[in-house]
Write a structure and sequence with these properties.
CATH architecture: 2-Layer Sandwich
CATH topology: Alpha-Beta Plaits
Strand order of the largest sheet: 2-3-1-4
Shape: globular
Order of helices and strands: EHEEHHHE
Number of domains: 1
Radius of gyration: 14 Å
CATH class: Alpha Beta
Distance between the termini: 19 Å
Largest sheet: 4 strands, antiparallel
Helix content: 25-40%
Strand content: 35-45%
Length: 104
Amino acid sequence: MSDIATTPEPPYYAVIFTSLRTEGDLGYAGTARRMVELAQAQPGFLGMESVRDGMGITVSYWSSLEAIRAWKENAEHRLAQQRGRDWYRGLRVRVCRVEREYGF
């Protein structure tokens, strides 16, 4: 992803997923593409931004905490979560409420 997400007027929510990858693909690339497709189809999904340069940071934007919970419980997403220890040396997920946004 190389574009800045277009988001609505706050408030809305951001899920920040920070990770350090393990060596090798182990099916990661295909699953990562599928997770983006699935997230984009979820009710309440607003957008996503992602970068990887050693450390990976993906921020997904959601309309509500309920939408985030539903995404977390998505069956395919849960299977990918279970594979996390194969793909990551470490990770952290942070859920935030966006109160203000500005930019150009």
